[in-house]
Amino acid sequence: MDILLGIVCAAFVFVSGRNDGAPLVAVPLQTLRRYWWIPISLLWILLPILPFCGFWAVAGSLQHMFSQSTGAFGAVVVIGTVLMVVGFATLQSIPTSITLSLVGALAGTNIATNQPLDSPLLVKVISLGLAAPLIAALLGWLLSRVPPALPHIGATHRTLAAYRTLTFPSLVAAYALNDGQKVLFCVALVMGNTVEEASSQAGLLFIASTIFCLGALTGLRRSGRFVRHGITAATPTRLLWTEAATAATVIGGSVAGIPLSMTQSLTGALLGTGIARSTKAIYWRSISRIGIAWLWTMPVSALLAYGGTLLGK
Questions:
Q1: Residue 157's pLDDT band (boundaries 50, 70, 90)?
Q2: Which domain of life is it from (predicted)?
């Protein structure tokens, strides 16, 4: 069972990279195509380093929701459920949230094992998770109303690049402090330790980060299309504000110790920057498909994990 858990967790980290990491890296690549290795390297470094430095509150919240009594089997059920749900959504070409699926699966396992749910924490996670794209959209809209200082047209590209040296590292740090801590949670599951103990295992964290970044590289082309045309036709300036709005939203969740979905926040920020231009600039059909996927992801994951745990009994 331990070997199976390791395989399932490695697959989960890879899929997380493809689902979460690829859109994250794709944002700056729309204007910095020649330097694709810079964002992926920054992600590879910060993903393990920040938890190693003691920033693991979000992973701690995930572990708090996990029913330890189910052991390795319960962990396989939880992670396997997420892989099935996200895999189905991917086959349907519908981007969904791994974080929502993970929280739903954790809740389903707890219910099946008659473990007490931390209702206040669960309500906080769900409510803030639903609010995250709305907050990111509002921030994206507000930032888009204040164009960056561009001295003259010839300096536009250099000015945007200078701003991006601040916004993109902030975005990656926000991910490592929040949504990316699913990776630390998986390392803790495989080790059978707490996330605090797992956070000190730099070697394992960098191995997991490598798997994550490989997953991100496999999804770059598809994510690039989503960033450019999935929600709205994005311009370099609006991509800059998208980064800033997404980072601010996710860092806010990190302060509260609440896991927030980077893909949800990124989608909301793209929506907000697009609306600032015109409501007609938004691809509302895509928005509706994504919204519906978010609505069913958590309950379906909870039901599947609940059923899988009962079968294991």
A1: low
A2: Bacteria
Residue 146 CA from chain centroid, whole number: 27
Q: What ranges do the domains of the chain cover?
A: 2-312
The mean pLDDT of 58-66, rounded to a whole number, is 89
* Residue 93: Cβ-neighbour burial (10 angstroms; 0-12, 13-18, 19+): exposed
pTM over 0.85: yes
What are the pLDDT digits (tens) for 241-269?
A: 998 999 999 999 888 888 888 888 999 99
Contact (CB, 8 A) for 110 and 67 = yes
- What's the pLDDT band for 156 if we cut at 50, 70, 90? low
Candidates 251, 265, 284; CA nearest to 97 is: 265
Residue with tokens 């561009």: 150
DSSP string, the chain: -HHHHHHHHHHHHHHHIIIIIHHHHHHHHTT-GGGTHHHHHHHHHHHHHHHHTT--HHHHHHHHHS-GGGHHHHHHHHHHHHHHHHHHHHHTT----HHHHHHHHHHHHHHHTTPPP-HHHHHHHHHHHHHHHHHHHHHHHHHHTS----SSGGGHHHHHHHHHHHHHHHHHHHHHHTTTHHHHHHHHHHHTS-HHHHTT-HHHHHHHHHHHHHHHHHTHHHHHHIIIIISB---HHHHHHHHHHHHHHHHHHHHTT----HHHHHHHHHHHHHHHH-GGGB-HHHHHHHHHHHHHHHHHHHHHHHHHHHHH-
